[in-house]
Every structure is written in C-alpha cells, then in structure tokens.
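Colleagues,

Please find the record for the two-part complex below.
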Amino acid sequence: MADTSGKELQAKQKTEVNTPAEQTTPGAVFSPAVDIFETEKDIQLLADLPGVKSNDLKIDLRDNVLTLSGEVAPFEGSDENDIFIEYEVGKYYRQFTLSEEIDQEKIEAELKDGVLRLTLPKAEKAVPKKIAIKVA
Amino acid sequence: MFIRRPFYFSDERFRSPFHELERMRQDMDRLMQGYGGRLFRPPTAGVFPLVNLTEDKDGYFVRAELPGVKADALDISATGNTLSIGGERKIAQEGETVRYHRREREAGTFSRIISLPGEVDADKINAELKDGILTIQIPKAEKAKPKQISVK
C-alpha cells in the first residue's frame, strides 16, 4: 500500500450526479468518494458522507444493487449571509452492482465522523474454499 | 411632417436587439439543464479544505467538509483577522490481504489560511467538528459589529 503520510491533499469539488429518478426537492446531488475492498469473508465499503446523520442515510440492497443515499440538513442559520462559498451542500447518491452473493442478514453499517463503513459479508457459498490437491 | 425612423421595424421579431440575446440565453439555460447540473462551479482558492464563509451580525462562520478527520488531528489558530486551518487526514491501513476494487478517498496533510473581512475577537473563537463537518464560529470584534442607531 502506498505511503500517504506527508502527501498534501488537493482541493477537489464534489462530483455532481444525476439520479435515476428525478428528485422531488430541489438541490444538488453528489456522488460520494468511496473505497471498496474485499477480504476473504466480506466486502467492505467506506464512503465519505460529510454532514449526513445516521437517520438520514439510507442503504438499500436488492437484486445485487447497493444504493446509498444520504440527506444533508442545511446547517446555515437563517440570518447568515454568504461571503464566499466554495463548496455546495447537497444530497449524496451512489449505486453499485455487487458481483458477489451477500448475506443480507449480517450487513453492518457504521457512520462515524462523516465516514460510512459498510460491511457486506459474503454468503457461505461465495467464500472461497481451499481445495486440497491429493498427491497420487 | 414625415419623420424617418431608421431603427424602427414593424416586425415583432426585431423589437429589441436584446430580445434576441434573451432568447439565446434561455436556450442556453435549457441546454444546461439537460447537461445535468450547473455548468458553473463556485470559484475556489484551490486549497484544501474548501471552505464556506458566512456572517451574521455577531460573527463569521467558517465551514469545511472534513470527513474522517479526528478533532485532535486539526490545528486551528487565529492571528489578527487571519484564520489558519491545518491538519492531517489519515486513512487506516486495512490489513495486508485485502484486495481493492476502488480507491477514491485520499489521505494527506493540509493547511490553509483564510483572511476574514473584518476584525475578530480571537479569544472567543469556537470550533466544532461533527459528522465530518468543521464549523468555526468567530465573533466579530466589538467595534466591528454593526450598531443599531435609533431615530428620535
């Protein structure tokens, strides 16, 4: 793994996306940055969702399609005036098609400091079995 | 007497030279809606983290999105009317055997200086980090606050 210490972070605008169904409320929709990795037992997903509270986050898995959607409540006070605005606040939305069978019962999600960690355990049959080779 | 009007056109389409421009602008707007969002991004200083600066009558608010950054990894200081935000975003290593499908999240250090438009009370700055959003509340200096003037 690359050593990330000392590297300077670059300013990046959030990626705006179109949702498959049109939104009923106005506002921008962004695609969160994610890390997805696989271990022998599960698939884990980390997503940056700053400003999303756990009850405003929806995680849905059906027909192998994982959907993340998060609402962000505006946190600006009503009598505040903008001086400069560099980033926009909006919803988050992203979908993934999973190639592995997932044990739906054991999915775990944890939202902490604006980062979601989703653990998707592979279903029993998808866990690779070690195949012993007999020596004749 | 016959008055000649060189710029008079009876045709409705030539009512105003700006009429045509307005029509073009509307066409552009429609085009952009189809494009899937605003084409024009807010201007930024190009330094991480991107911040939003707002004010009310008592103070300034600086907000930045810092998901996954711990409060103790942040270093915020103020001198005069400049505010500096520095820190590091760490992403823990996930074990030796994992195989990545996607890696979009980035780790690294950052530091940024923001100059505030007016004098501030540096002793009363309050910073909070919640759900990955940093909010810094900066009270304006007493003399920089707007004064209510009553009319007799």
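The longest strand of chain B covers residues 82-89.

Comments are welcome before we finalize the supplementary table.
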